[in-house]
Design goal:
Elements (H helix, E strand, L loop, with lengths): L20 H13 L8 E2 L1 H8 L3 H14 L2 E4 L3 E4 L4 H21 L6 H20 L2 H15 L6 H13 L11 H19 L3 H10 L2 H13 L5
Antiparallel strand pairs: 1-3, 2-3
Helix pairs in contact: 1-3, 4-7, 4-9, 4-10, 5-6, 5-8, 8-9
């Protein structure tokens, strides 16, 4: 899927964003999340050292951080590869996300406070601006904020934490669609529909929108997996 030309130089895989661990992590995470690096693709230390002008210990630390984030796996004698979720894992993780989010929606007090709705609208206007400018890093960042705030009124901190956990787990299989302008626009509009349903105290619609909002990411990741040779 095309990535808008408005991306900064640090988003270009042929550029060197810097030599800190944070710079290497940010650049590689971006490449993974937006499909420049595909599931099961190898991440060799020598190639990364050359790309970033970094020492080996710094590259290894960056790969450790990416492994903790769940987007890279490392194995003895095999090195690091982009994490590859099986089709069954994808279905199971998204099923759990759907169940958790549905429970959060069921617990939401309706009518919701005007302050909470206003905060969601301010966040979504920032998301709109990021979409309009083609700033995918900002789209990704604000998207996460929107969902954290949206489900934060469930009244159950453990439930909120569980939603965040599975959002992070699906991160590497969630972002591909936002590189596609049509899908990104659909997801943006769904955010506004969720806000409108919250204002209207329409819980059945909120439940439906919450479930539908997960589907483009899941479908896109499964399509990417099917395009890779020898991937069932």
């Amino acid at each position: 899927m095309p990535i808008p030309a408005s991306q900064s130089l640090t988003d270009d895989p042929d550029k060197t964003p810097g030599s800190s661990v944070a710079d290497v992590v940010a650049a590689l995470e971006f490449d993974i999340l937006f499909g420049r690096l595909k599931p099961r693709e190898r991440l060799t230390e020598d190639a990364l050292m050359a790309r970033f002008g970094a020492k080996r210990h710094l590259v290894r630390k960056a790969l450790e951080e990416l492994e903790k984030m769940g987007v890279v796996v490392r194995a003895p004698m095999r090195g690091a590869t982009v994490r590859d979720f099986t089709a069954q894992e994808v279905e199971e993780v998204y099923e759990l996300r759907d169940l958790l989010q549905a429970r959060a929606v069921e617990r939401m007090p309706l009518p919701c406070s005007p302050e909470h709705v206003g905060k969601l609208k301010r966040i979504q206007r920032e998301h709109d601006a990021a979409v309009a400018s083609g700033d995918l890093r900002q789209v990704d960042r604000i998207n996460d904020i929107f969902h954290r705030v949206f489900f934060s009124v469930s009244g159950n901190k453990l439930l909120e934490d569980a939603i965040q956990h599975y959002m992070q787990l699906t991160r590497a299989m969630r972002i591909y669609p936002i590189a596609d302008p049509q899908t990104l626009e659909k997801l943006r509009c769904q955010h506004w529909a969720m806000i409108a349903a919250l204002e209207a105290c329409d819980r059945p619609l909120l439940l439906r929108l919450s479930a539908e909002h997960l589907q483009p990411s899941k479908a896109a990741y499964l399509a990417v997996r099917r395009s890779i040779p020898d991937t069932p």
